[in-house]
Specification:
Order of helices and strands: HHHEEEEHEHHE
Distance between the termini: 28 Å
Largest sheet: 6 strands, antiparallel
Radius of gyration: 17 Å
Number of strands: 6
Shape: globular
Strand order of the largest sheet: 4-3-2-1-5-6
Strand content: 5-15%
Number of domains: 1
């Protein structure tokens, strides 16, 4: 398992996650993709073994912090800004992890999935305040990523907001997007969490070549691998986990 750095993710920890988490998520994936079977090992590789591609840390790393929950929340709230990408541990529909994007310094845009994801969940897109996001994911680490190009980050956030929430940028929700896992990277409806994030930086950044050629992907975009889609000099900076 060359992907795994044993100093950051021990074999014992992987074994526990494999028994307690991964096999159940794989069963979800198989139930959705029965016509296109993929074996368990290939599925783990596709999901990068639940490891963030830049830090080599597991999304399911036990949350132990020297900061109190209150201090950790305060740090998170004071850190995140428009265009930041948020990645956390829990996922749905056969994907490991969950992702979202800050559409302002206050609002988080996401597609959370949920019950009924197999057939698609209508009207699944939403914006939530950043403090509420932290509370919903307080039991897992949320890693905050920031694009090195501030202009690209603002452009991506604006595109996401207007494409996935309100075309005029208003507070009222106008767009109603169905949550569904498909390999169609080009459509915005249906969509899912990590696809939304990558689309924002691909379609929303004008002439800037921020994201690798999506026509070469042909597979689901896994949250933990989002940093690997960014091209130089627009890479994501890890601003910490909270």
């Amino acid at each position: 398992m060359g992907i795994i750095n044993s100093e950051k993710y021990s074999l014992e920890s992987f074994g526990k996650d494999e028994r307690d988490i991964f096999r159940d998520i794989y069963k979800e994936y198989r139930s959705l993709n029965g016509s296109e079977p993929i074996n368990y090992h290939d599925w783990l590789v596709m999901n990068n073994f639940g490891i963030l591609s830049d830090t080599q840390e597991s999304l399911f790393q036990r949350k132990i912090s020297k900061r109190s929950t209150v201090d950790n929340k305060r740090e998170f709230i004071n850190t995140v800004k428009k265009g930041d990408v948020l990645i956390t541990g829990r996922g749905v529909g056969g994907l490991i992890g969950h992702a979202a994007i800050m559409t302002s310094d206050y609002w988080v845009l996401e597609m959370p999935g949920g019950d009924g994801w197999e057939l698609g969940i209508p009207d699944n897109n939403r914006q939530v305040p950043k403090d509420q996001w932290f509370d919903m994911h307080a039991s897992d680490w949320t890693t905050v990523y920031r694009c090195t190009d501030a202009e690209a980050a603002v452009m991506a956030a604006r595109w996401a907001d207007r494409t996935y929430y309100n075309p005029s940028g208003g507070e009222k929700k106008v767009k109603h997007i169905t949550y569904q896992l498909t390999t169609d990277i080009w459509s915005t409806n249906p969509s899912y969490c990590s696809k939304l994030v990558i689309q924002a930086y691909y379609f929303g950044t004008g002439s800037k070549s921020v994201i690798k050629d999506l026509s070469l992907i042909g597979r689901l975009i896994v949250p933990s691998t989002i940093p690997s889609y960014f091209l130089r000099p627009y890479g994501l900076i890890n601003k910490g986990k909270y």
